[in-house]
Amino acid sequence: MGWLEGKVALITGGGSGIGRALIERFIDEGASIGVLERSEEKVKELQEQFGKKVVVVQGDVTLLEDNERAVAETVRVFGKIDTFIGNAGIFDYFVSLLDLPKEKLDTSFDELFGVNVKGPLYGAKAVLPELLKTQGNIIFTVSNAGFYPAGGGPLYTASKHAVVGLVRELAYELSPKIRVNGVAPGGTLTDLRGPSALGQEKQTQSKVDNIKDLMKTTNPLHVVPSPKQHTSAYVLLASNKDSMAMTGVIINSDGGLGVRGF
Ligand code: NAD
Questions:
Q1: HSE toward the beta carbon, residue 236, CA cutoff 13 A
Q2: Cross-strand partners of 185
């Protein structure tokens, strides 16, 4: 018997990386899954891989109507939503304030904050009526950059600090009916892209020199977790039975960055 038997989760950005690992793990734990994913190619792959266990909606988390479509489609197929996971995100590949081109400030800020901050906010707004019915829960994918410097440039770090704010504010506002928590992964090898406004839409971690060593050496445990290795934290937070007293909590899954010396 899985931890999430009979539950339904809606996950944004399930096309690769942490989101895709979450789909696999939540299905193993007995859940049915709705997905909101932007990439047409990844949408097709998900449908082929998971068949009727998932309902995949192609759309953009920055648009309220796409979030609403994903909610409606998930409820049409599976009858309810117990957990919303706001996970879709993009990175800034460490572009510093000094290196951010003046003429691209507006567009890169809007694009990155659109996906990383507006996305989880709009998702939560769209799913709220359904979560009130099930007394469900919300989990946001944060990042080590939600807590510490040097996990990105100013755009990414500020966006993930904003997600910490969303966890805290929504946990406060939506109690006692809905629990709101987060998981903050550290460096993980995925397909993570950057904003097209900075020409980073095809940038991937594998193109960064020695990325694995960089990730390993900056955390005390010297680990580079796979996406799958973060999923237990989400399973715990999604299970009302197993984490009923937890809200406003963010589980740091980053190799112990909080205990390194600065
Ligand atoms: P990923 O690129 O493999 O997965 C992100 C998915 O979101 C992709 O399938 C992408 O197509 C989708 N997506 C992007 N923009 C979207 C949009 N506007 N609408 C709908 N879907 C969209 O990367 P990942 O590393 O698995 O990222 C997942 C989350 O984890 C992000 O929030 C990221 O910031 C966070 N994170 C990643 C790392 C890391 O090192 N990989 C570390 C900490 C936090």
A1: 14
A2: 253
Residues with CB under 6 A from ligand 1: 12-13, 15-19, 36-39, 42, 60-62, 87-90, 115, 141, 143, 185, 187-188, 190-193, 227
CB atoms within 10 A of CB 262: 6
Residue with the smallest CA separation from ligand 1 atom 34 is 89
Q: What pLDDT is attached to residue 207?
A: 84
Structure tokens, 123: 């998702």
Beta strands in the chain (DSSP E): 8-12, 32-37, 54-58, 83-86, 137-141, 179-185, 250-253
Please report, for residues 5, 95, 138, 141, 165, the alpha-carbon distance to residue 91 in angstroms, rounded to integers and kept in the order given.
33, 10, 22, 13, 19
Alpha-carbon gap, residue 117 to 6, rounded angstroms: 30
ipTM above 0.90, yes or no: yes
Catalytic residue among 93, 122, 148, 156: 156
| Entry pTM | 0.98
Mutate to test the pocket of ligand 1, among 44, 93, 190 (most ligand atoms within 8 A of CB): 190
- Do the beta carbons of residue 215 and residue 186 sit within 8 Å? yes
- Side chain identity, residue 91: F
Return the SS3 of 48.
helix
> 9-60 pLDDT, tens per residue?
999 999 999 999 999 999 999 999 999 999 999 999 999 999 999 999 999 9
DSSP string for residues in 192-203 = ----GGGT-TT-
